[in-house]
Amino acid sequence: MTPTDAGGAAFHGVDAQALFAALPDPVAHLTAGGQVTLNRAAQARVQQYSATGDWMALFHPGSVPAIQDGVQAALRGETRQVTVQVVDTVAPGLLTVAPTAGGALLHLHVARDPLEVALELMDGMGLGMTVQAPDTRILLTNDAAARILGMTQEQLTGRDSMDPEWRAVHPDGSEFPGETHPSVQALRTMQVQRDVPMGVYHPGEATWRWLQVTAIPRRAPGAEQPKQVTTVFADVTERQQMQAEVRRSERRFRSLVEATTQVVWNTDPAGSLQPPQPRWEAFTGQTTAEYQGAGWLNAVHPDDRAGASRDWQRALETGTLYTTEYRLRRADGTYVPMLTRGVPILDERGQLLEWLGTNTDLSAIREAEQALRTLNAELEERVEARTEELSRVTRFSTLLLTAAGESIFGLDARGVTTFANPAAARMLGYSIESMIGQEQHALVHHHHADGSAYPLEDCPIHQTLSDGQTRRVERDVMWHAQGHAVPVAYVVTATHDSAGDVNGAVVMVQDITERVRAQQQLQDLITDLERSNQDLEQFAYVASHDLQEPLRTVGSYTELLARRYQGQLDPRADQYLHFMQDAVDRMRSLIQDLLGFARLSRTELNFAPVALDDLMRAAQQNVQATLTTSGGELTWHTPDQVWGQGSLLTQLLTNLISNGLKFQQPGQPPGCRSRPGGTGT
């Protein structure tokens, strides 16, 4: 097949618009008037960088002058090829500008740089990649490198391998100097450095990342000095951690085996112990000649040999795990119970290589099992006894709460009712079930007796839940289910958990309705008595004044009759006048006493220490006339003091002495003597 001529005749009849649209490279048609038409490839690429469809948005500003020169040449009928820098590629692009009728055709061809392809490939594989100059400065990185190292590409660009901020370390934790980094070694030796383990600090996560680094030097053809070094590294942190965990697990397993295993042994595929067997020899005391072949059975207790041999033969025939128990003779002749296990060791083809087994001393386990059985039995007895005790206590507590005459609430730390006895339910008109689970304050303690709101923070019960202090309230109200207040007195005591924190409270409540009623009745009686006393005092005061005037009149006329007619009438009339005078005197005395009582009730008492000797002297002066008339004698011995009001005490002593003088035995002179240490008549 002969190719057709590349001239215009070869494309005669081809639809130019269809060809323009089908080209895979970006193509633009520019008219002399400046109108631009883009094919599909150009439109798709331009839309990524320009919302208005500007063709020039594809190019770096430095390429614009060369493009403008090429367009001007095409408008003059010349074809130009311009090397340009495209914004989304590393490699330069080739822009062909050709003249067309009335304009210019611009064709862009971009060849991808192998380095750019390599960077994208490394990104896809999750491998970090850097390109470094001969002085190890980083010239180019991919996204994976920035992500693994915890820095942006801008932060990485320009850094070198000598920078101490890498904080590189070897797997053993020792410092990894910059001059020994794989990239530096590759540049120095011109040899590829493969799979070098390195730890670097990740600043974003503040952790260490483990890398596996390969550095490849690049040299220009014919040059002796390296041009660049390409470093590829993988993040093997998880693998490193897994390997470290496997090593730790292996060490723990080895330690566990060595700590718990009494005897470790191995046999050939046929089941014969192969020397040396140091642990077997040390435990049993058998020599190599004694335990080879089936000689090891001689160290097993005679009663257990048949079973041990049977189980071992079955394991050899089936290639399965060997597990049995028997008593093995120790070197001192004591038979020790052993748990024996053996596992077949296979190669990668499944062929039996050897048997590896252990004998574990069960003595301690047997003793522990027996001790555990004994302990369990004791614990069961204790639990049973404790359960019975708790049951008795629970029954007693239940009976106590049920039979208690006082109302009892239990609250949790939130103030929610956790229990209530029947007395509490009866007092407030609720069922026990309807009270449990309810906030106690909101249910029965929400208002004061006068109907004003009772804030929760002012409630003594809530305060005890907060500070744990016991509180006693003598007068308060709780609200009945039917809406009326019930007078109560209560004591609230906090309960505590094992840590000593308040976890609730117990409230013991007493219905004081009868007490309040009795107190009110008593107050009413006191009020009536006070009013009666006031009336009596008023009466006494009025009587003491109003009765004196008619008595004074009667007394005056009686005295006039006595003075005028004394001795002129018969003896009986004189006796009658004497009786009248005595009655007037007694009446006057009664009125004086009544007036004194009235004055006393209105007098404010002022108590003070008073010497009894002074009081007796004042009383003696008051009765001196009577003493002289009657021939009486008054003596006293009162060195002490008393607490009282002096004037009233003087009146009291005067009355006592006057009574002694009045009511004397006929024919004997009156006499008043104070008894030793006090007064007396």
Strand order of the largest sheet: 2-1-5-4-3
What would you report as the Rg, rounded to the nearest angstrom? 62 Å
General shape: elongated
Main beta-sheet annotation = 5 strands, antiparallel
* Regions with little confidence, pLDDT below 50 for 5+ residues: 1-8, 674-681
In terms of structural class, how would the helical and strand content be classed? alpha+beta
Helix content: 40-55%
Which strand-content bin applies to the residues? 15-25%
The whole-number mean of residue pLDDT values reads 82
Number of strands: 23
**So how many helices?**
22
Q: Report, as a whole number of angstroms, the end-to-end distance.
A: 172 Å
Domain PAS: 135-172, 249-319, 400-468
Domain PAC: 194-248, 322-374, 471-524
Catalytic activity: ATP + protein L-histidine = ADP + protein N-phospho-L-histidine
Keywords: Coiled coil, Kinase, Phosphoprotein, Transferase
